[in-house]
Amino acid sequence: MKTIRAQIEARLGIDAQDIYGLSEVLGPGVAWGVNVFPSQIEELVLATPTLAPHFRIELIKSGHLDVMTVVVEATAEVDSQTVETAVDQLTLRIKTQTGITARVEAVPCGSIERSTGKARRVIDERSAP
Asked: In this structure, what are the phi and psi dihedrals at residue 94, rounded to the nearest 5 degrees?
């Protein structure tokens, strides 16, 4: 029989952590979040050989939750099954490395805007009207 903690983790798609004393510091009813840096996602994308080094992180609000979608490009020479496998692997790596569940979407090679200066990697639409 699963423990209550395991059931909650499975239902919410999270990994629960024991953080003793947090409620005393911040008070009851405190929600937690996870900081994810574009460099963390970049490292995971670069470690996937069938993906191009170009990606974009899109953030939206869905009800009370933030939703992160990582848009990646496949290299030009791979077939759709290989791309699907790479997307599944990247999704799992993001969950393993950051503790969050992200959507990963593959787009054709050349679809993500190229930048001559600093790349704009994050599109945050959570506060958009």
From this structure: -65, -45
